[in-house]
C-alpha cells in the first residue's frame, strides 16, 4: 500500500509539472502572438501611409481630376482593408 501511494504521488507530481509547463507555454505563445500582431499592425499602417503619399504625389502634378483620383484611392483602401 505504501508503494501504491508513492506511485500515486509520483503520478500527481508528473501531472502537475506537465500542466505547469503547458500553462507557461500557452502564456509565452500568447505574448508572442500579441507582439507579432502589434508589429503587423504597425507595418500595415506604414505601408498604407507610403501608398497614400505615393498617390498624393501622383495626383499633385495633374491639377484636374484630383478629387476623382482621391475618391478612387479611398475606395481602393477600403477594399484592401476588407480583404485583409
TrEMBL record:
Biased composition (Basic residues): 41-56
Biased composition (Basic and acidic residues): 28-40, 57-72
Positions of the UniProt region annotated as Disordered: 28-84
Annotated protein name in UniProt: PRKR-interacting protein 1
Domain of life (superkingdom): Eukaryota
Record GO terms (molecular function): double-stranded RNA binding; protein kinase binding; protein kinase inhibitor activity
CC terms in the record's Gene Ontology section: nucleolus
Composition-biased stretches (Acidic residues): 73-84
